[in-house]
Fold:
Amino acid sequence: MAKSNRIKGKMATKPLDKRYSKKSKSNPEKRTSKRSSTVKKFTVRIASEDAKKNDAKQVRPNFLLKIQSVILVVRNKIDKLNSHLKKKIDTDKRYRIASKVLTYVMFLLGLYLLLYPIVPGLIYKLFYKGKEVYPYQTVLEGELVDNDNAKLGGKEIPEENRLVIPAINVDMPIVEGSNEDALNLGVWHRPGTGSPGQGNMVLTGHRVGYAFLPDDVKNSTSFYNLDQLESGDYIIIYWGGVEYDYKVTGNEVVPKTATYIESQADEEKLTLYTCHPVGQNAHRLVYYAKRIVE
Structure:
C-alpha cells in the first residue's frame, strides 16, 4: 500500500511538477510570443488596411481619369457634331443666298431680254422726240437760230469720220470693213459705194441687237429710230475733218435682196438703210438724202 501510495504520490506529484515546471519555464515565453503575435497581427491588420486604403486611393484616381477621358471623348464628339451642323447650316445658308441671287439675276436677265427691243424707242420718245441735237460745230447754226428745238453742243469738228442725225440723236463713227462685223463698231460704210462729194455713199447700221456694255448697246441700236426721220431733216457727215450736210428727200421699204439701193450714179447722194421691221431681217428700211451745196 505504501508502495502504491508512493507510486500514487509520485504519479500525483510528477504531473504537478511537470505542469509547474512547464508553467514556470514556459509561461513568460508564451506571454511574450502572444504579445508579439498580437502585435504582428495588429501590424499586419494595419498594414492591410493601409494597403486597402492605398489601393482605394489608386483605384479612385484611375476611375476619375477614365470618367474624364469618357467626358472628353463625348465632348469632342459633340464639338464635331456642332461643327458639322454649323458647316451644313452655313452651306445651306450660302446655297439659299446663291439661289436667291441667281433667281434675281435670271429675272433681271429675262426682263432685260423682254424690254430691250422697245427701250431705245421709249428713250427716244421720252427725251429726244421733237428735239434736234447737234453735238459738234456746224455751218447750219445760222439756219438754226430760230429753231427752238435745236440743241447746239459746240464741240470741235471731230477728226474721225462720223455720222450725225440730229432729229433722232445719232452720233456714230463711220467704220470701214469687208464684212458685217464692222456693224459692231459703228455705222458701216458699204464697200464699193461712194464717199462724200462723189457718187452714192451708202451707210448701214443695226436696228436692234442684244448687247450689255454701253458702247455695244449704242452700236447695236444705231439706226433703231431711223423710221422717225421725215423729209427735210438734216443729216451731217464729218469726213476727213470736213463737214458735209444733207437733207432727207424720201424713204421706202424694200426686200433684203434689193441691191439697186447701192447702185452708183453721177448724182451725189446719201443712202441709209437698216433691217425692217424691228427684230426681223426680211426687209430693208431705206432713206435717201440729197447733198446741200452752198
